[in-house]
Design brief:
Blueprint: H1 5-9, E1 15-20, H2 25-41, E2 46-51, H3 56-61, E3 69-74, E4 77-83, H4 88-96
Parallel strand pairs: 1-2
Antiparallel strand pairs: 1-3, 3-4
Length: 98
C-alpha cells in the first residue's frame, strides 16, 4: 500500500523531499550525497524523491520551478526549502536546525 504524500510528510522525524527529474544532471549528482546523508542519519530522517514529470500536480502545489528542489517537512509543515545542488553539511543544517 502506497502512502500519500501527506502521510509521508506527517512523520515524527524530519522528511527531506527531493523534487527531481530523470533528465536532470545535477539531480543525478545529488544521489550519492543523499545516500551518504541517509547513511549518517539513519532512522533520524526520511528521504523521499518526487519525480516532477510523473507528479506534476504535487510539483505545482509546492510551486517547484526548477530541479533539484529540496524541502524539509516536520510534522507536515515545510520548515526549509532550497533549489539547486546542496552539500551534505547544508542539508544536515537544514534538517538539524528545525
Amino acid at each position: 500500500m502506497k502512502k500519500s504524500f501527506n502521510e509521508i510528510i506527517n512523520q515524527e522525524i524530519p522528511v527531506l523531499v527531493d523534487f527531481t527529474a530523470d533528465w536532470c544532471g545535477p539531480c543525478k549528482s545529488m544521489a550519492p550525497v543523499l545516500k551518504q546523508l541517509k547513511g549518517e542519519l539513519k532512522d533520524k530522517i526520511s528521504i523521499i524523491k518526487i519525480n516532477v514529470d510523473t507528479n506534476q500536480s504535487l510539483a505545482a502545489q509546492y510551486q517547484v520551478q526548477g530541479v533539484p528542489t529540496f524541502m524539509v517537512f516536520k510534522h507536515g509543515k515545510q520548515t526549509w526549502r532550497q533549489s539547486g545542488m546542496q552539500t551534505i553539511s547544508q542539508l544536515k543544517q537544514a534538517i538539524g536546525s528545525h
